[in-house]
Amino acid sequence: MYLCLNVKKKIFQYNDPIDTSIMKYIFQCNDCKAEYSSREWQYLCPECSKTNINELPPKGVLKCVYDYPAIARKGIQQLVGSHFIDLYPIEDERNMPTLRIGRTPLYESIFELHGKSIKLYIKDDSQNPTFSFKDRASAMVSAYAKEHNIQTIVAASTGNAGSSIAGIAASQGQQAIVLVPAKAPPAKLTQILLYGAKIVAVDGSYDEAFDLSIEASKAFGWFNRNTAYNPLTIEGKKTVSFEIWEQMKGEIPDIIFVPAGDGAIISGVYKGFEELLFLGLIDRIPKIVAVQAEGSPNIVNNRFSQKPVFIKSNTLADSISVTIPRNYYMTQDYLYKYAGDGILVKDKEILTAIAGLASRYGLFAEPAAATAFAGMKKYLTENDVEKNKRCLVLLTGSGLKDIQSVQNSIHLPAPVKPDLKELQKQLDYNKAPGQ
Amino acid sequence: MYLCLNVKKKIFQYNDPIDTSIMKYIFQCNDCKAEYSSREWQYLCPECSKTNINELPPKGVLKCVYDYPAIARKGIQQLVGSHFIDLYPIEDERNMPTLRIGRTPLYESIFELHGKSIKLYIKDDSQNPTFSFKDRASAMVSAYAKEHNIQTIVAASTGNAGSSIAGIAASQGQQAIVLVPAKAPPAKLTQILLYGAKIVAVDGSYDEAFDLSIEASKAFGWFNRNTAYNPLTIEGKKTVSFEIWEQMKGEIPDIIFVPAGDGAIISGVYKGFEELLFLGLIDRIPKIVAVQAEGSPNIVNNRFSQKPVFIKSNTLADSISVTIPRNYYMTQDYLYKYAGDGILVKDKEILTAIAGLASRYGLFAEPAAATAFAGMKKYLTENDVEKNKRCLVLLTGSGLKDIQSVQNSIHLPAPVKPDLKELQKQLDYNKAPGQ
Lengths: 435, 435
Hints:
The structure is a homodimer.
Chain A: E1 25-29, E2 35-37, H1 46-51, E3 62-66, H2 68-74, H3 76-81, E4 106-113, E5 116-124, H4 135-147, E6 152-156, H5 160-171, E7 175-181, H6 186-194, E8 198-202, H7 206-220, E9 223-224, H8 232-237, H9 239-247, E10 255-259, H10 264-278, E11 287-293, H11 328-337, E12 341-345, H12 347-361, H13 367-382, E13 390-395, H14 404-407, H15 420-431
Parallel strand pairs in A: 5-13, 6-7, 6-9, 7-8, 10-11, 10-13, 11-12
Antiparallel strand pairs in A: 1-2, 1-3, 4-5
Helix pairs in contact in A: 4-5, 5-6, 9-10, 10-11, 12-13
């Protein structure tokens, strides 16, 4: 059933089923589909990454593949009752952080647009320990490290991934080392440092920090959390799909809007639903729409490309400002395989979406997260979506993470004397222009 | 059983039991103990606030008092199964925001100090929709307003209470108006404005903004959320005690450390446990320790005073920087009645506590929240607390709310070239001084 060709040790022969007494999952290359034993750790497919070394985006990103028929035979109650542990690349749930990872709220409402009612679900992943979706990935990486007695985890990141691994590692008694480009703004690094992570400011670009982190993890035996490099980040990210399925009581949304930078979150969301499909728990995959800023359109613009052309990114939504999407090939495959879609929004629309989410739902999202909401509005406007379709927007991080970028878009009123008439005057003034 | 004297309408006679077919709860003055029908809205005790008008702290703060024997007779399963609705000043749970209010994680660990093991519980209330404990109070106020068709809620606040009512009101389709002193830093106001609240910057002190908000609510029929003025804020805050009791499966902590500003959170925590005691669900009240910054010691220093002396507050923990604690009398009563305690910590200890919570537990707390943790460490050092005592620390808000105040306490390393040796050198350097 599951093929396994370990190019190094040849433990398994081609065509062998997974012997789950020996291993729970195998690694499969997203590109050449070669399979590798998980008994020996593997970051990238040695074949595909060999031919593509130093080329971006990288080929040879690996997926963890489980023995789905065996898991299906055990039944849904076993799976849900054991918190999906059979679909995780760890043996013992107790190696997961004790922090509440995921289990974030799913809010349901009706969204009216151009006289059409859409059933809108908002998955608020700002409600995570470090206030972003990235904790799902960090938790899985950290749990694996704990299970394998690896004490140090390294990551290259300027933002949410860095603070996430710093916080999660801290909670597990592990040391995180975060490599950042020297130009990263100090405010973003405060959270990382407070968690007790070591920050190395690299005098160079993000890509140089990324490469150095890989070198360092090889040289010092650190576990590397980098996206589209460590296959476990996708394993963490896929948990959101299981949760959505559970919270919707076995139903799934029709369309899911996901903010896209390097494509790792989309891939995670797809992999989660794909596994539910493999297990027969759902009978189709939701349409997933990748939403990007117009200034960082490299997945959406190249989603059908044979020869992708990447432009230098520039958007205020910095968590998804990505020139070369490192998980590009896997994302492209998923979007193709399950008829996904893509849409671009302007920075101005992102700012409007932040205000819309906050003022309508009381949800204060960071720009990248609000991008998904902006994408939904645009997509519903431009496409003939049937009414009563269930749309889900994935909010990936808290607005408190990036106050700066929205501060310019708001206007503080002039002070008034502590007097009732003055107060009234100002409120009337507030109301006046076009309200 | 429950006395009720409505000084305005005399619906009820003194000594009458509550007729729950007529009303679910009554208001009772914290100070003169007079009781008032809840069929007519009441902010402060008309008697006590009349004699004390313009005097601070105010007397005559009201408590909601329920028919505890009747609730007890219905049984614990009914109470828990209906999410404690019998103890809330609203009729229908559906008037509560659909946002996930409370239900925050309770983390359990062992804290070693001077060779003693303490069982440490941390209640992480940064995991609320607007990322602070204040959402519990805002939710109750908003639900009441919804139930009584009040569309506008006003509050005087510079920080968490303001952004909380702005977010919660937004989610309920209500209009929030937040009065702030003109000097409030714009970053703090960004979240409030994005939620669609109207901000009125008052050219004056916090107290003047407070008074103006009260005037305005009287003049315009707005509902006023001010702490130690609207009795429902305590009703929201008490929910944390019910949750702790549930999460500890009917047990309670021995000591609870609560950050204190105006005393409203402490009063809420006490009232929750007191009601569990009234219902026979617990048999004692935990020792509650009010923790304040040395620069804002006005509850701790005056907790036994007949004639309190308040000094001008000055601490980096701005959510608890309070010169005149508006809920002073109720807090003092509770601390006296249930043998509570108080402790002061230095700003430096607060900063150390922020780093300690983050680096040890992966919990990034705002200064006010970390104050409780600092207080616990100090209290356990100074007092002979038996080992295996269960201590709980209440974290009231996210560290992302106030990056500025901690930024000065961290040190960014100098950049290194993207080179393995340089990296190693910096990490060794990081390790060198005393580690």
